[in-house]
Amino acid sequence: VVVPIFNEAENLAELHARLSAALEATRRPYELILVDDGSTDGSPALLDDLHAKDPRVRVLRLARNFGQHAALSAGMERARGAILVTLDADLQNDPADIPKLLAKMDEGYDVVSGCRTGRGEGFLLRRLPSRLGNATIRRITGTRLHDYNCSLKALRAEVAAQLPGLGEMRRFLGALVIMVGRRVAEVPVAWHPRRRGLTKYTALDLISNYLDFLTTFSRRPFQVIGALGLALAGLGLLGGLAYFPVRFGLGVPLGVRTQLVLFLAVFLGFQFAILGLLGEFTTRIYRLVQHRPFFVVKEFLE
Ligand code: UDP
Ligand code: MG
Q: How far apart are alpha carbons 61 and 57 in whole angstroms?
């Protein structure tokens, strides 16, 4: 079980107690990998305590705050289980749902994703963007799920093993694991409002995440620009061809202004087409240069 933790001091004791209870009840061997993503509150000390107290707790401390999905990736790379479970530290997910995910995994799935029910979050700032995001991810991944951003997920070690090679796409683990896993299922899980501590995401973060996702996973924006450009240039060329018969044959009084518009359509159209083409090359280069480190580990208490 891998948990990303950024300033969750108020939640750690209860998280550990409820995770342990849920996991012991499954009678399967387990380990808890608690990833401290550069916390600046009491979390590091509490994690040290848990590590000293419980041999099944491993604490991975990142050198600074790298973000939820970087922390998850770092933890997942060190997990030893055949099945990995991820969830948030703030108890918005319910550890008691883990057996349900495992039972579904036993049916032979590669990835089982939680689907949040009863989300009491604000419509405008949380649920609406969430729906937009889901629709986009659905198009890009081609997998039909209801909720791609639920942190509570189970996946096979084989799926997790493919993630390190995928660079910054891991910024969006939810979408990535269902692209990597072939057999994907969804089970309804409980969702609770955050009781203690603060959310780490503002509305602005959600927008920038969305744009990040588009540019990381999709070349479509460039393709649209290129296609529109070609269409515009095509219209301009057709207009240019029609210009002479219309003006001299039919005697319609077309002047310099029409010529200018046609010239601009062709000229700008080709500019946009070339821009789209350049974008395509940039995307390819972007994928190649993804070797930069996604996180840096400071310490690993095993
Ligand atoms: N988190 C993290 N690093 C960050 C931001 C968040 O490890 O930079 C963790 C956080 O401690 C929590 C989970 O990611 O366990 C989800 O964060 P949060 O609850 O703030 O997100 P929300 O539920 O509001 O979407
Ligand atoms: Mg939360």
A: 13
